[in-house]
Amino acid sequence: MSVLGAIAVLAVLIVVHELGHFMAARLQGIHANRFSLGFGPILWKYQGTETEYGIRAIPLGGFVGFPDDDPDSDIPPNDPNLLSNRPILDRAIVISAGVIANLVFAYVVLVGQLTVQGIPAGLDYQPGVLVPQIVSGDGPAARAGIAAGDVILSINRQQLGADENAIIKLQTEIQKHPNQEIPLMVERTDRILTLRVTPEAGPDGKGRIGVQLYPHGTPIYRAAQNPFEVLRVAAEQFQNIFVRTVQGFGQLITDFKSVAHQVGGPVKIVEAGAKFAQSDSANLLFFAAIVSINLAILNILPLPALDGGQLVFLLIEGLRGKPLPTKVQENVMQTGLMLLLGLGVFLIIRDTTQLEVFQKLLD
């Protein structure tokens, strides 16, 4: 059920994004003749008064189609309500509306989660330290076999207790032993593993293993004092997620080799969502907010086939006083779309083969 919930969240976020484009067009009176989830062959469609609604075979996003690009459309090319005939500002609103919809949706979801779960009030600590993410794909932790989701129970034969000092104790031991092999006891799902890690010496001479660390425990929640507290805390969480996501994309650009393994497609996203939902189904709301913000920032990047790439075309048009030739735009967008779909298929295959269930079959 947690997997189905994560899939449902991903589908909803795609709908929200495309609905942003669609509503921005419709509210301005701009013709939109297709609303599609997915790409490729049509699995199901419904023809409305003006718009064809459909679901397609490749679940890597969606699109809103406009009759400007449809040779079979009976709308005259000089119709003022065609997207291409609208001023740059009108078109920019339509293009950016998907990103705006995802950001607004993320904040609304955080408000909903805080309303349902309550305001975070600390942790009920459990033994060990959680490893939510492997920062470096070829770092000491990855080479030692540490995986995201592991709980480190002891280091160098020293138990990590159920308190806030566990992280400090773990970090201290790692920093004290650069280039020295030290044993770890790790809990993974229902197994206890003994691993050995050799911290690398950082620029300051202290050891590091290339992981994020987080206190291990069950969150405690309290009732909100008033609705304004919910709105304030939701805004703080939104800002925190947004800033971390931007930093993550920045690191992907500046240090691609180290963080490339963290890039995931739909399979990895669903797997992460399922883990969120295992402890509490309400956590799916927080997961939805995280993915929605990621989807917004990804789409605003100035890359072909993404919303940011189309905004770049509008910027060039504004500077030149006329748009780039249609053939140039089409070639760039089609190339970008093929690369995007190719990357999506690659990530689906890679992430599927890395699933624990798949690994057990191989064993």
If you had to describe this structure to a student in words, what would you say it looks like?
The strands form three sheets. Strands 3, 4, 5, 6, 7 and 10 form a six-stranded antiparallel sheet that branches. A two-stranded antiparallel sheet has the order 1-2. Strands 8-9 form a two-stranded antiparallel sheet. The model is unreliable at 357-363 (pLDDT under 50). The protein folds into two domains: 2-115 and 293-362, no CATH class; 122-219, Pdz3 Domain. 51% of the residues lie in helices and 22% in strands. The protein has helices at 2-27, 88-117, 140-144, 166-176, 227-254, 256-259, 266-279, 283-300, 307-320, 326-353, 356-362, and strands at 34-47, 52-65, 119-134, 151-155, 158-159, 182-188, 191-197, 200-201, 207-208, 211-222.
Topology, pairings included?
Layout: H1 2-27, E1 34-47, E2 52-65, H2 88-117, E3 119-134, H3 140-144, E4 151-155, E5 158-159, H4 166-176, E6 182-188, E7 191-197, E8 200-201, E9 207-208, E10 211-222, H5 227-254, H6 256-259, H7 266-279, H8 283-300, H9 307-320, H10 326-353, H11 356-362
Antiparallel strand pairs: 1-2, 3-4, 3-10, 4-5, 4-6, 6-7, 8-9
Helix pairs in contact: 1-2, 1-7, 1-8, 2-5, 2-8, 2-9, 5-8, 7-8
Short description:
This protein has helices spanning 2-27, 88-117, 140-144, 166-176, 227-254, 256-259, 266-279, 283-300, 307-320, 326-353, 356-362; strands spanning 34-47, 52-65, 119-134, 151-155, 158-159, 182-188, 191-197, 200-201, 207-208, 211-222. The chain has 363 residues and is α+β, with helices and mostly antiparallel strands. Strands 3, 4, 5, 6, 7 and 10 form a 6-stranded antiparallel β-sheet that branches. A two-stranded antiparallel sheet has the order 1-2.
